Write a sequence for this structure.
C-alpha cells in the first residue's frame, strides 16, 4: 500500500483516532488521536514512542501485535488495552491495525476507538449482576419464571432454602410437579390469565423431603411480541409458620378448651350448615341434645376439678360412638348436642342408645374423688328436609331432652314433626 492512496484530508476528518507509526515511533496522528490522548495538538505527538502511552501491563502484548503487523499484510483482529493520556488519565481503547508501506520499511496504520465508557458500563453491569445474584441467593422469597407450557425456565438459588432442591433440579421440569395437587397449578394459571396478575394467591408446594408447605404467590402473565401468552413470572414465599398460627387461632376460636370438641358457636354453625345441606339434597338428619344427669351434685360433692374430669371423659366416650362426619359440640356447662347427617331413623336411634349405654357403663376415675359414675339424658329430633327453622329444631331438641329428664333420666326421648314419641 502506498502513501499516495491515503487522503490526508480524509484522515483529518475521521472521528476515529488514526495513527501511523514505524517501529514504535509515531509518524502521523490525526486530530481525533490528539483528542483521545489529551494532547494540545497532533504535532506534539509526532516522533514520540507509542509505548509512552500504553499501560505497562499491556505493553508486551501490544508490542507483539505491532511486530506481527509489520511482518504480515493481513489486518490484525481487534483488541482492547489500556493507555495513559498526556494528562495521565487512564483509558481503555480498541485497536485494529494493518501493515503500511512507507517506502523505507513497513509501518503500521492503526485505528483506535475509546472503549472506556463501555468498559466502565460492563464493569457496572458485572457488579450489578453480581449484586443481583447475591440478592437472589439470600432472599427469603423465591423468584421464578415458567413458559407457556408451565415448564420452569428459571428459579433463583434461594429455592434450596425453602424446598431443599437446587435450582438445577427444578429448571426444565413442569411447575405442577411441585404441587401436592397438580390441579392447583391450573387454578393459579387460570386466575393469572383471567386477571393478568395475582397477589398473595394461596397455595402449597412439596419439599424435597416430602413436607408440604404453605406458600403465597404474587405473579404476572408474560406475553410475546405478538401478544401471545408466553408464561408467568413472579415470586412466592413460604408462609407455613403464619398459616399454622392462623390455623391454631382458628382452632382455638372453634374448640371448647376443656373437652376439645366444638364450642357453642362452632357447633351451632355446623348445625346451620348441616341443615342447609340436608335441605339442598333432600336428605334426613338428626339432632341430639344431651345433658349429664345430676352433674351439679358432682361439682358440689367432689369439686370443680372432678367435674371437669368427668366432662372430658364424657366427651371422649361420646366421640368413640360417632362417625368422623358427625358433629359434636358443647353448648355450655354439662349441655351438649350432636348433629347426625344422612342417617336413617333406625340407625340414628341406635347411635343415641349406644351413647346412653356407654356413658352409663363408664366409671370415671379421678385422682381426688376416686371412682365416679354418671348418666346422660338425650333428647332426639329426627327431621326430614322440611324443617322450618334452626330455632324450631333446637326448641324441639330441648323439649325432647326435658321429656327424657321428666320421665326418669338416663334415657332417650324422641320427637319428630312436633309429635312426642317416648
Amino acid at each position: 500500500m502506498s502513501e499516495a492512496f491515503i487522503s490526508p484530508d480524509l484522515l483529518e476528518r475521521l472521528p476515529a483516532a488514526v495513527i501511523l507509526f514505524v517501529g514504535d515511533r509515531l509518524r502521523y496522528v490525526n486530530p481525533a488521536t490528539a483528542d483521545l490522548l489529551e494532547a494540545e495538538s497532533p504535532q506534539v505527538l509526532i516522533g514520540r514512542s507509542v509505548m509512552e502511552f500504553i499501560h505497562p501491563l499491556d505493553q508486551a502484548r501490544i508490542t507483539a501485535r505491532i511486530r506481527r503487523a509489520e511482518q504480515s499484510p493481513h489486518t490484525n483482529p481487534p483488541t482492547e488495552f489500556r493507555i495513559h493520556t498526556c494528562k495521565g488519565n487512564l483509558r481503555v481503547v480498541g485497536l485494529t491495525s494493518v501493515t503500511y508501506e512507507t517506502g523505507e520499511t513497513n509501518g503500521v496504520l492503526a485505528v483506535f476507538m475509546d472503549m472506556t465508557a463501555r468498559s466502565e458500563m460492563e464493569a457496572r453491569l458485572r457488579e450489578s449482576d453480581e449484586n443481583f445474584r447475591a440478592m437472589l441467593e439470600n432472599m427469603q422469597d423465591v423468584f421464578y419464571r415458567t413458559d407457556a407450557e408451565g415448564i420452569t425456565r428459571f428459579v433463583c438459588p434461594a429455592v434450596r432454602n425453602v424446598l431443599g432442591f437446587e435450582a438445577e433440579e427444578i429448571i426444565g421440569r413442569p411447575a405442577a410437579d411441585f404441587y401436592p395437587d397438580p390441579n392447583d397449578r391450573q387454578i393459579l394459571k387460570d386466575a393469572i390469565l383471567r386477571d393478568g396478575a395475582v397477589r398473595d394467591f394461596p397455595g402449597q408446594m412439596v419439599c424435597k423431603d416430602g413436607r408440604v408447605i404453605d406458600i403465597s404467590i404474587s405473579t404476572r402473565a408474560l406475553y410475546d411480541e405478538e401478544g401471545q401468552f408466553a408464561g408467568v413470572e413472579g415470586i412466592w414465599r413460604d408462609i407455613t409458620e403464619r398459616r399454622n398460627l392462623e390455623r391454631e387461632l382458628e382452632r382455638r376460636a372453634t374448640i371448647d378448651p376443656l373437652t376439645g370438641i366444638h364450642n357453642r358457636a362452632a357447633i351451632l354453625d355446623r348445625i346451620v350448615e348441616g341443615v342447609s345441606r340436608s335441605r339442598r339434597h333432600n336428605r334426613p338428619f338428626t339432632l341430639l341434645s344431651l345433658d349429664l344427669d345430676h352433674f351439679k351434685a358432682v361439682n358440689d360433692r367432689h369439686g370443680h376439678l372432678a367435674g371437669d374430669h368427668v366432662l372430658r371423659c364424657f366427651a371422649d366416650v361420646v366421640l368413640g360412638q360417632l362417625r368422623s362426619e358427625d358433629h359434636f359440640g358443647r353448648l355450655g356447662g354439662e349441655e351438649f348436642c350432636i348433629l347426625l347427617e344422612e342417617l336413617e331413623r333406625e340407625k340414628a336411634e341406635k347411635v343415641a342408645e349406644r351413647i346412653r349405654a356407654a356413658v352409663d357403663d363408664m366409671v370415671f376415675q379421678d385422682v381426688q374423688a376416686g371412682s365416679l359414675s354418671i348418666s346422660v339424658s338425650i333428647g332426639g329430633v329426627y327431621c326430614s328436609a322440611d324443617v322450618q327453622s334452626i330455632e324450631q329444631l333446637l326448641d324441639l331438641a330441648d323439649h325432647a331432652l326435658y321429656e327424657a329428664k321428666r320421665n326418669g333420666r338416663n334415657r332417650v326421648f324422641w320427637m319428630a314433626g312436633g309429635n312426642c314419641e317416648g
User: Anything to note?
Assistant: Residues 152 and 170 are 7 Å apart (CA to CA). The radius of gyration is 44 Å. Residues 418-422 have pLDDT under 50 and may be disordered.
